Amino acid sequence: ALHARLLQEMGSDAQAATALEKVLELEPGRVEAAAELAELLQSRLRQPLQAGHVLDRAVEAAGRAPAALLA
Q1: Radius of gyration (Cα) for the chain, nearest Å?
Q2: Which residues neighbour 26 within 8 Å (Cβ) at sequence distance 6 or greater?
Q3: For residue 19, which of 9, 10, 36, 65 sits 20 to 30 Å off, Cα-Cα?
Q4: Pick from 30, 23, 28: which is nearest to 7 by CA?
Q5: How many CB atoms lie within 10 A of CB 20?
């Protein structure tokens, strides 16, 4: 997720989104990465539907560990 933030700061939003997607492939329960990706998709890449899908998957993954949503 740190790599994604650095990419964003360098203006590489699409690369940052790809980095966050890879994080979530490896660790679907990383709620903070999902929230960061959803925000990036919504606000900077103007992909609100994709942002919604990311949040849906985060909620599904957290369903197995509900405390993760509180993190």
Answers
A1: 12
A2: none
A3: 65
A4: 23
A5: 27
Q: Name the H helices within the chain.
A: 2-9, 13-26, 31-39, 48-63
pTM summary value: 0.84
Residue 54, C-beta contacts closer than 8 angstroms, at least 6 positions apart: 24, 34, 37, 38, 41
Q: pLDDT by residue (tens digit) across 23-48?
A: 999 998 898 999 999 999 999 999 99
Q: How far apart, in whole angstroms, are the C-alpha atoms of residue 9 and residue 68?
A: 27
For residue 2, the Cα-to-chain-centroid distance in whole angstroms is: 12
